[in-house]
DNA sequence: GGGATGGCATAGCTTCGAGCTATGGCGATG
DNA sequence: CATCGCCATAGCTCGAAGCTATGCCATCCC
C-alpha cells in the first residue's frame, strides 16, 4: 500500500471513471488501472466494481475511503508543515525568463512548484536576457533564466540548464525555404526582428554583419509573440528559438546552416542558464524552485518530452 | 513520500539508531539510510541530526513526527478494517505440517500472516503426512502441507509448492560417509527411523527392501527431533529431509545415490503440497494463508534464501 | 444492424529505485 | 593504540511503475 495508490483510488472514486482519474493524476490510464489492481491484491479484496459506464466502490472500498482520504490529506499536510518551517508557506518568488521559455518549460515547472508551495506568490518577468540580467543585479528578481554567452557577469552565478537551437520561421503558405538555409540566402527575404533588449536581435544582426550582408528589415520592434504573428501574416521571416514553435502550427521552421563551423558551437545554438546573485543569499523559495526546475527538466529530458531543438544540459555534478 | 519511508523514519526516531531501526524494519541498514535520505530530499529538509552515538529529529523532523505516526497507523487500520469485512479480524486457522517444514518455512509464513491478521488464532498440528491427511478429511484441519506421492486422495486437492531432497545424516565425529552413498552401503550402518505415521519411515524401509538389503535398525520410533538427537549422539544414521539440517550444525549430510535412475524423480526427492478439502468451501483465513504462503515462498525462492536441497515449485498458473 | 465511440484491460517494453553485500571513515571506548 | 560500533558510500540486481499500442466490450447513433 502506497500513498500514491491511495490517491489513485480516491481519484477513481471521485470521478467514477478510470480514464478521467488517470487524467486527473497525470498518468496513463493503464498505469492507474494496474496500480489499483496492485492495491486490491495487496489488501486481498476488490475495492471497485467495474461497470461498463460507471465505477463504484465495493464494501471494502467504502471502508477504505475515509482512511485513504485522511492518509492522503495527512501526507499533504506534512509537506505543508515542513514547508512552513522552512519559510516556504508564505513568501515570494520573482522569476525572470525569456519569452520562449515562459510558454513552455517555465509553465511546467511552475505548475509543480505551485502545487508544492501554494503559499508562495509568483511574479514572472518576461523579457530579453539583458533586461533580466539588469533586473537581477538591481535586486528586482530572485532568479532568472537567461541566455548564457559564456561571459561572466558581475555578481551573478550562471548554471547551464538547456541548450536550444535557433531556426528561421516562415508562414506555411510562403515560398519554401527548404531544410537548411545559410545566412546569405536568408538576407534575400524580408526580416522581422525584435525590439532592442533581445539577445536574438543582436545575434541576428551580428550574423548578417559577419557574413557581409545587409538584411532587409520588414518590421522592427515588438515582443516575441508580436514577431511571430507578423511572420504568420507573411510580413517576413524571423530567426527565433525553436522552442516558440509549439503552439504555432502555421509556422514552418528551417534550420540554419553555419558553413565551415561546428554548428552546435556557433551562434545558431545557445545556452540557457539559471542565474542568481552571488552577493546575497538566495531565498529558501529560490532554492526550492531551483531544485524543482532541475528535477522537472531532467525528467522531461529522460522521457523525451522536450520540444524539438532543445537539449537538457546535465548539471556538472551529474555529468562528472 | 511513501508510507514505508515514514515507517522507517519512525523506527529511527524511536530507536535513536539507524542500525537498530533497520533491524526493526527487517531491512539492511544502508537501505534504511538511503530511504531516509530520499525522504529528506523529497521534503527538501533534513529530518534527523546524525550524532556519532545518537540520532535526534530536527525541527522539521519533529513537525513530521505526529503526522507520520498517524499515516502509518491509518494504513494499518485500513488493512484491519478491510480484513474485518472479509472475516479476517476474528477467526481460526488450523494448519498441519510435517516437522521438517514447521521449523523452517512455516515459521516464516506464519510470521507474515500473523502480522497481517493478528486476530486469527493459529493452531498448528505437527505430524506425519498420513496423520495430517486423515485430520484434513475429518475436518480437523483447514490446510496442511503434506508429502505428495502423486496419488489422488479422496476429497482433497493438492497444490505442489516445494520439492525437497532426502539425505543421510550422521554425527560429525563419526566415520565420513563421503559425498554420496548408495542404499546398499547405507545398510552397513545402524539406522535410526521415525515412528509409524511418517512417510519417511515407509520410504526408508521400502528403499531397503527394493535393494534387497535388510537394514540394521538401531532405534525405532519417535518424532523428527528425537531422531536427530539420537543421530547427533552417534546412535546411528538416518534418512531425513535436508530441510531439518538448519539448526543442527553438528550433523553432516550425505546425498543419496539412486543408481541407474533419474535421481530427481526417484524416492530421494519428494514433493510438498498444500492440501485442502474439496467438499467444503475453504475459509477466508485459509485462502489468505494460501496467498501468503505462495508469495513468501516465491520471494524466498527468488532471493535464494531457501535452505539447500529445497526447490520452489511454481504454481501452474505462473509456469504456463 | 453496423460502424463509431468511449472505457477498461492486456501485452510488451523501458527505466527508476528499493533492496542487497561489501567496504570505508570516524568517534568512542577499553 | 587497537577495537568496536555506527553510519555513509559504492556497485549491483531485479521488481515494479511508468509508458505506448492494442484488444475487447458495451453503448450510441445513423
From TrEMBL, chains A, B:
**Entry-linked SUPFAM superfamilies:** Periplasmic binding protein-like II, Winged helix' DNA-binding domain
| Pfam families with a match to the protein in the record | HTH_1 (PF00126), LysR_substrate (PF03466)
Where the record annotates domain HTH lysR-type, the positions are 1-58
Spell out the Gene3D superfamilies in the cross-references.
3.40.190.290, Winged helix-like DNA-binding domain superfamily/Winged helix DNA-binding domain
A molecular function (GO) term: DNA binding
Q: Which residues cross the membrane?
A: none
Q: Write the record's keywords in alphabetical order, separated by commas.
A: DNA-binding, Transcription, Transcription regulation
Q: Which InterPro entries match?
A: HTH-type_LysR_regulators, LysR_HTH_N, LysR_subst-bd, WH-like_DNA-bd_sf, WH_DNA-bd_sf
Q: Which GO terms describe its cellular component?
A: cytosol
Q: Which domain of life is it from?
A: Bacteria
Q: Which family does it belong to?
A: Belongs to the LysR transcriptional regulatory family.
Name by which UniProt lists this protein? DNA-binding transcriptional LysR family regulator
Per the UniProt record, the source organism is Actinomycetospora cinnamomea
